[in-house]
Amino acid sequence: MALSLCRQAHAASCEVSLNVTDKDPAGLNVRATPGGAIIGTLKGGGELVSVTVTGQSGAWARIDGAYLTPKNGGDLRTLFSGVGYVAFSQLGKDLDPEVNGEILAEPRDDAHVVLKLPGGDAAMPKAEVIGCSRYFIEVRVRGLVGWTNTGP
What we know:
- This protein folds into two domains: about 1-90; about 95-150, SH3 type barrels.
- It is mainly beta.
- Strands 6-5-4-1-7 form a five-stranded antiparallel sheet, with no helix packed on it.
- The protein is globular, with a radius of gyration of 15 Å.
- It has two helices and twelve strands.
């Protein structure tokens, strides 16, 4: 019970940008509530789609916008505006060892480091995003769960 309450307290609100990793050609559904009615679909057509995550409800990310980044480097195009929910399991973040190379025990800059990611040319381990708090994302890396700073 305490773990559940702790997770909810940490995940109340956040402000992070994540990438849509869903490979379904039909796109990622945006819902009015967690598991609720579909109010939009995010289709990238091979282009990068990112979402602004502003909170969490269990396994669902609350978003307030989604954007398409053209491969040719053109301007961002808004795909969705307003509040909606998408599954965290369909979102990801490329971790950069120079920026967020430490996995922390808590969503605090001074928290205990549970894993230090390799730098240089070493292959980055796959990180599964499972939550957020403020400007931190909760990730599962190499079987460990922790937090990494995405910057304010």
